[in-house]
Amino acid sequence: MADAPQLRPQSLVLAFFGNHVLDEGDLCVYSGSIIDVLGRVGTGEQAVRSTLTRMVNRGLLRRQREGRKMFFGLTPQAARILEDGGQRIWRDGAVNENWDGTWTLLGFSLPESWQRQRHDLRSRLTWSGFGALYSGLWIAPGRADVRGVVSELGLDAHVKVFHARADEATDIGEMIRESWDLESLAARYVAFDKRWSTGPDAGSRDPVATRLRLVGEWLRIIRTDPRLPVQHLPEEWPARQAQETFRRIAEETAASANGMARALLETAPLRSA
């Protein structure tokens, strides 16, 4: 597909397991089957093997030997990640139409010499949907739970979290524009819709590859979308049209992709750890 973004092998592996393994119970998949499927979207065998090894080392996948073959299955941590992704895709969606007016405010003050800790905190806050209102004051719509992030970074003593509502005199639209790069976010949705609106994968006859790339690209966008209240975003916010396109193609390809996957994949029951 022209102008398609380059997806990381780990993202594709997770999308593969989310598409074809997560809802099938405790299964593991032969490494050769995973290599075959990811090869259909241009990922080489060595890149897949290296990625599988890294994901085992990171606690995302489990290895299981069956005879001379190596199989891989999801760990509980990876299953939770995929369930969260499914929540974002199928239930929450990309358009926040039910915002209750609350904000999560996170303030922090770190010693000047803690440059690495400051960088790590800002990176994790951005990933969690926060925007910087000021250098030491970050905000997110709704009641965002960031206690785990703060504790993991060892910054509990340096961070304060509040939940509040904006004063009536506050221009929420302006506050959003100051805290998030709306132009960049909108451009990602427009590009996705342009690539996919004419149909699945430019006429591809491989529904497994089509669905893998579709879900991988969509997750890449929505995982960095803070789900800002749509009533305070520019008119005709492109996430709505992009989501309609995503869900239409996902529905059109679901049955054929699942049927082909059942024929392609060699699986085995995942034994208890």
UniProtKB/TrEMBL annotation:
InterPro entries: PaaX-like_central (IPR048846), PaaX-like_N (IPR012906), PaaX_C (IPR013225), PaaX_trns_reg (IPR011965), WH-like_DNA-bd_sf (IPR036388), WH_DNA-bd_sf (IPR036390). Residues 180-259 form the Transcriptional repressor PaaX-like C-terminal domain. Residues 97-171 form the Transcriptional repressor PaaX-like central Cas2-like domain. Signal peptide: none annotated. Residues 8-76 form the Transcriptional repressor PaaX-like N-terminal domain. One of its GO terms (biological process) is DNA-templated transcription. Transmembrane segments: none annotated. This is PaaX family transcriptional regulator. It comes from Streptomyces montanus.
